[in-house]
Structures are given as C-alpha cells and as structure tokens.
C-alpha cells in the first residue's frame, strides 16, 4: 500500500461556533497516547475558537513536565505548596495557577503529590464533584470555550472527578500489547460504573500512533478491525478511522486509494512532544493535523460528524 495525504474532506471541519464543552481524554492504561491526544485536541480547539484549557490530572505529570513547568509540578521548597489540592479540594482560585501554552491555549498543571489530592477527595463531602465545582463550572463558558482533562491511567477519585466534571470522554488506543484489556477495563470499571450515577458520553474512540501496513495481519489491522466491528462504530469512530466492508475489500485487493486510517506515527508528533509544543506550533504542515481538527469538530458538535 502507498500512503496518501489526508483527503480534502477532512479540511472543511469548520468551527460551528462556541458551544462550551468539557471532555476527558482517558484510558485505564499507560502509554495509550492520552497526553499527545489531549494537548493536540486542545490546541485545535483553541485554534478554531477563542480559548481552551488543559487540566493535567496525570500524577506522572508528563504534559506539565514536557511543557517546561517542572517548578510547578515539583514544589520542593515547600512541601505544603500543592496547588492541585488547594484548588480542586479546597476551592482556591484556579486562575492563580494557570499558565500559557500557546496562543489561546492554557494549562492547569499537575502536581507531583496528586496522591494527596486523591486521598483528600476520598474524605471530602461530595468528593466526586470538586473538579466540576472548583474548575470547570468556574471557567467553562466564561474564560474558556473548551476544557480538556488529561486523566491518570489508574482508577480512583481523580478519574471519577474527571468523568463527572466533563460528562464526555475520548478514548485513545495505541496498537500495542494490552490495548484490548485497557479498553475493556475502561468500559467496565470506569464508563459503566460512572453511568450508574450520571450521564457520560463517549464522543470518540481514536486509534493513534499507527505505523504498520494494514493489508495483512498486523496489530494495527487488528485494532482497526476490532473498532470498526463495534456495534456502535458509526457513532464513535471518527471518519479518519472508519473502514467499511468495501474499504477492507479494496485494501486486501491492493485497490485502496484512500489515506491510511487512524492517526499515523509521525516524527513531527514525537519531536513536538520532545520540545514541549503542540503539533500545530511545531509543524503546522504535518499531514496529521486534519485528524486532530476532526476530533476538535467532534467535541464542538458533541458527536461524530458524518
């Protein structure tokens, strides 16, 4: 198979106008592409609208660290200086701790002691509602059109808060060992349990960091086949990853002239991560940017657009 550039149909995903919405990027598995998806989704939302905010709830703080805020993540001079606890649990003003990432895009950074936040939320009255009350409800629709939450890979009160605060989830999947169990655990232990208490919409399931051929048996193909065979695939698989039976027949007959589906591995994406920038600010010509633009359009609309 030869690789083609993304088709023009992906380019016209124009903003439909401000519709304030929060979304969590989540999977109960490390290394699934959550942080890369969250930052580039948020950057496209900021680019297409006015203002977007990322909330880093990952206790590893990969996004916060990669964006150059080690001093905020690790407050070594004062062990009591935990801005995440001060804001999420105690209700301090989040604006005092927000930092700029790029034009229109800001970050509420993680803290190395998010475990203390997790413990405090377990003990707090209405502990599942604090992120919504103290960050999302204060900022969404006034200062920010969209809020994207980068979630931890482990089950706990931080994840419960992210689900309740946003009511929307995007699930990124990399074609690596354990992606099946990561998706199953997320659905059973996070989504289904949350839905017993409040509405939680799956906006999209996103295959990402694909790099292998799909015209023969590879892990990339297995992932794409599994996702496209889901009973609700039309509702949750973005256009850039949707493969029909006719597409598969063309792929296997070496007669497929469309782009390779899914967000593909690009050195520019890795490099942007290394230099602490969203992809758009590192390489605005990268051929995968239209895919992140489609994810932004899905968040704007609150559903996959066909």
Written as H for each helix and E for each strand, in order along the chain, the element string is EHEHHHEEHHEHEHEHHHEHHH
Strand elements, count = 8
Count of runs of 4 or more consecutive helical residues: 14
What about the largest sheet? 8 strands, mixed
Strand content: 5-15%
Give the overall shape, derived from the CA principal axes: globular
Stretches where pLDDT falls below 50 for ≥5 residues? 1-16
SSE-based structural type = alpha/beta
Arithmetic mean pLDDT: 90
Task: Give the distance, in angstroms, between the N- and C-terminal Cα atoms.
Answer: 26 Å
Which percent bin holds the helix content? 40-55%
Radius of gyration: 19 Å
Biggest sheet, spatial arrangement of strands: 3-4-2-5-1-6-7-8
Structural overview:
This protein is of the alpha/beta class. It has 14 helices and 8 strands. The radius of gyration is 19 Å and the shape is globular.
Brief summary:
The chain has helices at 34-48, 62-66, 70-73, 83-89, 114-123, 130-139, 157-166, 179-195, 219-228, 233-236, 245-252, 267-274, 279-282, 289-301; strands spanning 21-25, 52-56, 99-102, 105-108, 146-150, 168-173, 201-210, 263-264. By secondary structure, the chain is of the alpha/beta class.
What is the element layout, followed by pairings?
Layout: E1 21-25, H1 34-48, E2 52-56, H2 62-66, H3 70-73, H4 83-89, E3 99-102, E4 105-108, H5 114-123, H6 130-139, E5 146-150, H7 157-166, E6 168-173, H8 179-195, E7 201-210, H9 219-228, H10 233-236, H11 245-252, E8 263-264, H12 267-274, H13 279-282, H14 289-301
């Amino acid at each position: 198979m030869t690789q083609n550039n993304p088709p023009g149909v992906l380019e016209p995903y124009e903003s439909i106008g401000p519709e304030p919405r929060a979304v969590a990027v989540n999977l109960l598995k490390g290394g699934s592409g959550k942080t890369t998806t969250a930052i580039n989704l948020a950057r496209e939302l900021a680019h297409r609208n006015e203002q977007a905010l990322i909330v880093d709830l990952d206790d590893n703080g990969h996004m916060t660290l990669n964006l150059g805020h080690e001093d905020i993540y690790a407050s070594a001079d004062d062990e009591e200086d935990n801005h995440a606890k001060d804001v999420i649990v105690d209700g301090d003003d989040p604006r005092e701790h927000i930092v700029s990432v790029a034009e229109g895009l800001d970050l509420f950074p993680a803290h190395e002691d998010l475990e203390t936040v997790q413990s405090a939320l377990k003990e707090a009255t209405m502990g599942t509602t604090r992120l919504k009350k103290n960050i999302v409800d204060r900022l969404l629709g006034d200062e920010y059109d969209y809020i994207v939450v980068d979630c931890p890979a482990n089950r706990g009160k931080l994840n419960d808060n992210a689900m309740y605060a946003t009511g929307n989830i995007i699930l990124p999947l990399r074609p690596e060992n354990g992606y099946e169990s990561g998706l199953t655990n997320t659905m059973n232990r996070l989504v289904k349990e949350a839905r017993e208490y409040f509405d939680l919409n799956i906006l999209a399931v996103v295959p990402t960091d694909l790099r292998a051929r799909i015209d023969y048996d590879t892990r990339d193909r297995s992932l794409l086949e599994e996702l496209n065979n889901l009973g609700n695939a039309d509702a949750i698989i973005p256009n850039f990853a949707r493969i029909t039976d006719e597409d598969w027949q063309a792929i296997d007959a070496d007669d497929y002239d469309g782009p390779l589906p899914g967000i593909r591995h690009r050195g520019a994406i890795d490099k942007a991560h290394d230099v602490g920038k969203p992809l758009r600010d590192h390489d605005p010509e990268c051929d995968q940017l239209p895919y992140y633009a489609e994810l932004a359009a899905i968040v704007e609309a609150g559903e996959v657009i066909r």
